[in-house]
Automatic annotation (TrEMBL):
GO molecular function, one term: metal ion binding
One Pfam family in the UniProt entry: PEP-utilizers
InterPro entries given in the database record: ATP_grasp_subdomain_1, PEP-util_enz_mobile_dom, PEP_util_AS, PEP_util_C, Phosphohistidine_dom_sf, PPDK_AMP/ATP-bd, Pyruvate_phosphate_dikinase, Pyrv/PenolPyrv_kinase-like_dom
The enzyme's E.C. designation: 2.7.9.1
Record-stated family: Belongs to the PEP-utilizing enzyme family.
Residues annotated as catalytic: H450, C848
Cofactor requirements of the protein: Mg(2+)
Protein's name according to its UniProt entry: Pyruvate, phosphate dikinase
């Protein structure tokens, strides 16, 4: 097994073995770009080290051989006293990760070689500056010494000299600083700073390996769902020096604007500096464009290299470079991060430049980015005070009055105030407040904190872990720097950027939503570039996708919006939403009915109302399928709350004021009360025990369809029976439904072809899908309930209680209610789909439930061969895009 690869031996496809940095250094080397020579120790070596506690026995010799070759090539030995070869030791995992060990530069310098370096460079200051940097970085990252100690010593030296920037320090001061740094090392690490160059290098390599299992790195991996067993590579790269005077420097650049996507010169440059100086904000950088006047030759070469990289990677790249006395060196490149908007713009720009085709462009964007672009956002022009910044945990733009406890949040929101709930961290007791608030802001916790998880589940704006905010819940205020925010002060929270503002920031609608709504046209002359890009990607996704996309919608208004957003029908119309409001009293009557007559009366009152609902819905979705689900929730949801009612009855009794109806209601509430309503009298069970309920609903659908046909419409109703566990349930309901439909056909003289199908949302239904398909013309997987019943989780309870613990422990990377659990729930979907189709080859298969609009899950549903997904109207564009990506 080979553990070390020269930069000339790797390429960009070897990220697993060489890490991202190493693979791309190799790629640039092969492109004959000026990369300082070096080699990469593989992730495999790291894994052996982490598993066994020792580096693989062969590693030392292999490193020696590569180091020898490097030394021969450079004509000097590592740390050679009169002319030292220096190297950097750089971590580089497959994914870049905060918390991993930083890079150590200038390895090879020692008391002996610092003089040699000074002589060779003809620059004392430079040599001692490099040495102090080595001790500082090595002390901090390899020996684990508090970095502030070095910073303080550096500041003291500057103050003593009256210097404002570190370049003002001369060789003498730097020599003294080295002495001070070495003292710090001795005192804190209990050992001398190692003088042997190879020992320096080996210790640094091992420290990189160890940092893989550092707490911060582990936490980050859990949050980002990066596997823990990848290990990191280590790059050994010969040093080039940007701190050799004014004709040297270091910089970072993007091949195009990562925020907007435009091509141009984007980056920063810092003269006479090394490594991180440019990003650390130690001195003021200049815009990259100024390099043209500072060093035209290097600038031109850099522009040329950036073009080479873009053409080669066919994507936006970010780069790190250094200029050593007029000679340009490339130190890093990778395909760069970008904003959601830039992702769409860049993808289409690259198509227009002929660099990639449309299929590749579609791979470069995703549904999560599209969803982000659909949230309303804060007006960028607005001038407001930025209070601080946290983790963008759940997107959206929320404005409201600051409140610091759940009780106040609920109280104020009831009186019509918009509030932002601000907590140090949230816990299950804050749930009511979170529901009441426009947005949630916490000063602690990451992407898997309670606040973040619950807010995402509710689709509510959330910024968490804004550490600068000092939240004092007792005194109902928070302080940020010098600013005090009291209860009632207005704050604005941007869940897409993590920024928190004082005062009200105006919210503007997303141009992408304006486009989907048809209020903005991609064809217009002055069309927004982003809108055009989204339009093109959507058109392409629609062309290639196989999955159809339907909407979950219960009324004509939602149905029309869904159509504008591209829905190809309704996959779930929840009829219980038609039983609310003033109709609740009719439902009450139905539940309280003692006699056949009372029941029929109640049903007859409901029938015309339901029919009218369906007429409107079928009209809105004319020509497209509409799946109507018969009544699903437990009946007590339509009755008054048991405690409230008991109190009311008790008070009335005390006044000796008998209310017959309330008494009957209370009896019914008691009768219908269930310990476990989710597993109780609901779904098909209602249809089987309450005579006439389902047949009334079927009649309403059939009569509405007949009415639409008579009006020359094209209704395509499908009737769906929920919560079926066995084919017998379905058969009984189906037979009754068919009779009703036949009656309506006879009475109206209109031929109706209504499809009858079922939801698959219980494990037993999935397991007996072959039998159920005998009686069903379609299946719709109800993955919300299926997830609840397969896991034995009650969604309403568990997300707020123990899911954060599960996420933190890595039991699952994401809530199974957010993304389908492929292995468990998913495998039931897969086998039920296959079994159903084996019985009935033309069986139509779909999914309704949150998962229908989740990118990951859409790919899964494509894979298992479903015909459509159904999701809320706002998720339709996301589902369309991802269905297209799944088909690539
Ligand atoms: P990070 O992953 O944090 O970007 P890097 O390994 O890229 O860490 O290094 C940190 C800084 O040191 C970067 O600015 C990089 O350009 C610089 N650097 C790394 N190796 C060398 C080298 N051999 N010569 C000069 N500068 C280097
Ligand atoms: Mg870097
Ligand atoms: Mg259900």
């Amino acid at each position: 097994q080979k553990f070390v690869y020269d930069f000339t031996e790797g390429n960009r496809d070897m990220k697993d073995l060489l890490g991202g940095k190493g693979a791309n250094l190799a790629e640039m080397t092969n492109l004959r770009l000026p990369v300082p020579p070096g080699f990469t120790i593989t992730t495999e070596a790291c894994k052996v080290y982490l598993d066994s506690g020792q580096e693989p026995p062969a590693l030392r010799d292999e490193v020696s051989a590569h180091l020898d070759a490097l030394e021969r090539r450079m004509g000097k030995r590592l740390g050679q006293a009169d002319d030292p070869l220096l190297v950097s030791v750089r971590s580089g995992a497959k994914f870049s990760m905060p918390g991993m060990m930083d890079t150590v530069l200038n390895i090879g310098l020692s008391d002996a070689s610092v003089a040699g370096l000074a002589r060779q460079a003809g620059d004392e200051r430079f040599a001692w500056d490099s040495y102090r940097r080595l001790i500082q970085m090595f002390g901090k990252t390899v020996l684990g010494i508090d970095g502030d100690l070095f910073e303080e010593a550096l500041e003291a030296a500057k103050t003593a000299k009256g210097a404002t920037v570190d370049t003002d320090l001369g060789p003498d001061e730097l020599r003294k600083l080295v002495k001070a740094f070495k003292k710090i090392v001795k005192a804190r690490a209990g050992r001398e700073f190692p003088q042997d160059p190879r020992e320096q290098m080996d210790l640094a390599v091992m420290a990189v390996f160890d940092s893989w299992n550092g707490d911060r790195a582990k936490l980050y991996r859990r949050q980002e769902r990066i596997p823990h067993d990848l290990g990191t590579a280590v790059n050994i790269c010969s040093m080039v020096f940007g701190n050799l005077g004014p004709d040297s420097g270091t910089g970072v650049a993007f091949t195009r604007d990562p925020a907007g996507g435009q091509q141009g010169v984007y980056g920063d440059y810092l003269q006479n500096a090394q490594g991180e100086d440019v990003v650390a904000g130690i001195r003021n950088t200049v815009p990259l464009a100024e390099l043209e006047t500072l060093d035209k030759t290097s600038y031109d070469r850099l522009m040329q290299i950036m073009e080479t990289l873009e053409n080669h990677y066919k994507d936006l790249c970010d780069i790190e470079f250094t200029i050593e006395r007029g000679q340009l060196w490339m130190l890093q490149t990778r395909v760069g991060k970008r904003t959601a908007g830039a992702a769409f713009r860049i993808a289409t720009q690259l198509v227009d430049q002929g660099l990639i085709d449309e299929a590749e462009a579609l791979r470069r964007v995703n549904g999560a980015q599209l969803a982000q672009l659909m949230f309303p956002r804060f007006d960028e022009e607005a001038t407001v005070e930025l209070l601080g910044r946290g983790i963008a945990a759940s997107p959206g733009a929320a404005v409201g009055k600051a409140v610091f406890d759940s009780y106040t949040a609920v109280k104020w929101s009831r009186s019509g105030e918009r509030v932002i709930l601000i907590r140090r961290e949230t816990n299950p007791d804050d749930l009511d407040g979170m529901i009441a608030a426009e947005g949630i802001l916490t000063s602690r916790g990451g992407k898997t904190s309670h606040a973040a998880v619950v807010a995402r589940g509710m689709g509510k704006t959330c910024v968490c872990g804004a550490e600068e905010l000092d939240v004092d819940t007792k005194r109902r205020r928070m302080t940020v720097g010098g600013t005090v925010v009291e209860e009632g002060d207005v704050v604005s929270v941007d869940g897409s950027t993590g920024k928190v503002y004082l005062g009200e920031v105006p919210v503007v609608p997303s141009p992408v939503v304006e486009y989907f709504e048809g209020r903005m046209h991609a064809g217009a002359e002055d069309a927004d570039e982003l809108v055009v890009a989204v339009h093109r990607m959507m058109a392409y996704a629609d062309r290639v996708r196989r999955l159809r996309v339907r909407a979950n919608a219960d009324n004509a208004e939602d149905a029309l919006r869904a159509r504008r957003f591209g829905a190809q029908g309704i996959g779930l119309c929840r009829t219980e939403h038609m039983f609310l409001g003033e109709r609740r009293s009719m439902v009450e009557k139905l539940i309280l009915a003692d006699t056949e007559g009372e029941r029929t009366e109640a049903l007859e009152q409901l029938l015309p109302l339901q029919r009218q609902d369906f007429v409107e819905l079928f009209e809105a979705m004319d020509g497209l399928p509409v799946t109507v689900r018969l009544l699903d929730p437990p009946l007590h949801e339509f009755l008054p709350d048991i405690t409230e009612l008991s109190v009311r009855v008790a008070l009335a009794e005390a006044r000796e004021d008998h209310n017959e109806n309330d008494l009957r209601l209370l009896q019914a509430v008691h009768r219908l009360h269930e310990q476990n309503p989710m597993l109780g009298l609901r779904g098909v069970r209602l249809g089987l025990v309450i005579p006439g309920l389902f047949t009334m609903q079927v009649r309403a659908v059939a009569e509405a369809a007949a009415a639409r046909k008579n009006a020359k419409g094209d209704p395509r109703a499908e009737i769906m029976i929920p919560l079926v566990g066995t084919v017998q349930e379905l058969e009984i309901v189906r037979d009754e439904a068919e009779q009703v439909i036949a009656e309506v056909e006879r009475a109206t003289g209109v031929g109706l072809r209504l499809a009858l199908g079922t939801m698959i949302e219980l494990p037993r239904a999935a397991l007996t899908a072959a039998q159920i398909a005998e009686a069903a013309e379609f299946f719709s997987f109800g993955t919300n309930d299926l997830t609840q019943t397969v896991w034995g989780f009650s969604r309403d309870d568990v997300e707020a209680s123990f899911f954060t613990a599960y996420l933190e422990k890595g039991i699952f990377g994401v809530s199974p209610f957010e993304t389908i659990d492929r292995d468990g729930v998913g495998s039931l979907v897969r086998s039920a789909a296959a079994a159903g189709r084996a019985t009935r080859p033309g069986l139509k298969l779909g999914v309704c439930g949150e998962h229908g609009g989740d990118p990951e899950s859409v790919h899964f549903f494509h894979e298992v061969g479903l015909d459509y997904v159904s999701c809320s109207p706002f998720r339709i564009p996301v589902a369309r895009l991802e269905a297209g990506r799944a088909a690539l």
